[in-house]
Amino acid sequence: MKKSVLTGFAVGTLVSALAMFAFQSDGFDTAAYASGSDTYRQLNLFGDVFERVRADYVEPVDDAKVVEAAINGMLTSLDPHSSYMNPKSFRDMQVQTRGEFGGLGIEVTMENGVVKVVTPIDDTPASRAGLRPNDYITHIDGKPILGLTLSDAVDKMRGPVDTPITLTVVRKGMDEPFDVKLNRAVITIKSVKYHREGDIAYIRITSFNEQTGDLLEEAIRKLQRQIGAAKVKGYILDLRNNPGGLLDQAIAVGGDFVEEGEIVSTRGRHPEDTQRYNAHGGDLTQGRPVIILINGGSASASEIVAGALQDHRRATILGTRSFGKGSVQTIIPMGADGALRLTTARYYTPSGNSIQAKGIQPDIKVEQAEDPKIKKRTLITGEAELPGHLAPEDGSTEVAGSDSYVPQDKKDDRQLLYAIDLLNGIRQNAHFITRATTAAN
Description:
The protein has 441 residues and is an alpha+beta fold. Helix content is 29%, strand content 23%. It contains ten helices and 21 strands. Strands 5, 6, 7, 8, 9 and 10 form a six-stranded antiparallel sheet that branches. Residues 1-25 have low confidence and may be disordered.
């Protein structure tokens, strides 16, 4: 048991060093010392359990995998968004935020031991195969997912380009599971898509990666040239089923629609951690009306943009309530090229509101028609329903998720058609903001 003694010695030395801070100028802090002693006992317990597993488990164990699982257990007990990324996962995350990676093109999470679809990414094998938010993937190539970690399941879904894969899917409203056959592809995410709707500029942002801010500015300039800058009736910014991404890109996107003022603030554990982020560069849309489309799949960075422009009274928010992820994760590189994804702050809209476990309420609520292919409306799970989520800081009531269904056919898309009618003057609504204002700074 020599290694256990060394482990205990190392842990004990660390805790003893920490306990030295219990000595204050006015004497010994017994409460801090007691807390340090409790921590020492718990860490020593972990060392003992680890050594017992190594020595007596029925089969030899991989030390690195056991420690990694223990770290992930610790982090996932904090909240659903904190985790440890091993070197491979960390590299995959870096590739994804750059906007290109290999796989199926699907945002997923783990729930009740199976993979749950958050949203398929536009123009990828997953979206073309008809996967939807809230689908459950139970098998990969006929083998059950139950018992795998999310990272393991994702690894199995990735693979060489043009190789086939079969996913078994359970969908609410359908009586039986069904198989979906796909071919893996290189997923190049062009996170901004756009086209004109007559004299209306339509822009869809699918995620917030490193390219998003530049691509949005390019889209605005090209649409202004196509339509004529003076003829643009307004802008539709479609953030539906956008799961979020990089904070700096959300700030850049929000800043393209306001002349000045705060976009978002973040507040961590300590008062000195508070940071405020302001718009720079001015309103590229020249004060034209802006309508932002959101739904239950709009999360994180999407909610930062919607909340900022709503508070500034710069945009009309239309659709259904957003997901409600009001926390910020920091990527902290660790030893051997792994990284810690740790929730370090909550974010607040310019008026000081936190949307954690509550979401952004639309100014104009518009629901889609029922999907004729299923028996009941598909809902996406909101932040408030995720196990271990952070509670609202102000003690306010949590709110569940909302409808995330978006019809593929434009003629069935009630939210988009409503926005187009507003900008064309065919429909009126008292909550529609027709000109730029500066309400929150």
